[in-house]
């Protein structure tokens, strides 16, 4: 699969955040992320070496795309699996939380993620 597989990724950065599944909800904490995640760019600072330098980072595989309940519905790998009718994890309601801060009403921090709430 190689590069073609990795190129499916939308680079949303949500994989870098802490996630939890509670019943039918997938909760993503927008204030808690991997130490290699840059919140300004929403990108990984060690992307090319992430698997060797971070034990938190897990390689996206076909099996994960098919079964991982911590992947949101707009994830490109989930969309790929659904397109081929091989996504077996339950659809989850996506909820974002801010565990450490509450952004000002004028903040545009959530603009990156608005596509996932549509």
From TrEMBL:
Xref: InterPro entries: UCP006173
Record protein name field: YkgJ family cysteine cluster protein
Source organism of the structure: Sphaerochaeta halotolerans
Origin organism lineage: Bacteria, Pseudomonadati, Spirochaetota, Spirochaetia, Spirochaetales
């Amino acid at each position: 699969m190689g590069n073609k597989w990795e190129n499916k990724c939308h680079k949303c950065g949500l994989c870098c955040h802490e996630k939890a599944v509670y019943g039918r909800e997938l909760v993503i904490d927008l204030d808690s992320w991997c130490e290699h995640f840059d919140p300004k760019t929403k990108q990984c600072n060690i992307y090319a070496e992430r698997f060797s330098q971070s034990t938190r980072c897990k390689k996206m595989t076909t099996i994960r795309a098919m079964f991982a309940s911590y992947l949101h519905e707009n994830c490109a790998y989930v969309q790929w699996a659904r397109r081929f009718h091989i996504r077996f994890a339950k659809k989850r309601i996506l909820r974002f939380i801010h565990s450490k801060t509450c952004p000002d009403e004028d903040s545009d921090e959530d603009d990156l993620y608005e596509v996932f709430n549509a």
